[in-house]
């Protein structure tokens, strides 16, 4: 199967990371009823975790970059599970979790880092419903974690 979306990303200088292996008792993706459910993907770049807390030791821009890294990992997991990014009909929903202080309120702006990258990758099919919430901690101290529901085209 050709992967026109990935070719377009490569032409733009955007490279997908190697899909991360699970760190606990779950699988990265489950396909059911035409939907692909992607487990929470934590912020990492170049194989290194992006850690920190918004409102404490991370800026909004750093948080957005962490969320963008989650989007790229979600795309990598989609490709691994579905065989091609071209099987994506649309991104249905993202759940964005932001490691932040109790006073921090810019969670939606942090989440835009992921949402905007989905639009870059999938065009109109990257438009989605979303939740963006602040949490007091995330696994391994990461800044952002994102899970996703994706509608797939039939094979």
TrEMBL record:
It comes from the Bacteria. CDD domains: YjgF_YER057c_UK114_like_1. The lineage of its organism: Bacteria, Pseudomonadati, Pseudomonadota, Alphaproteobacteria, Sphingomonadales. This is RidA family protein. Pfam families: YjgF_endoribonc. Residues 6-141 form the Endoribonuclease L-PSP/chorismate mutase-like domain.
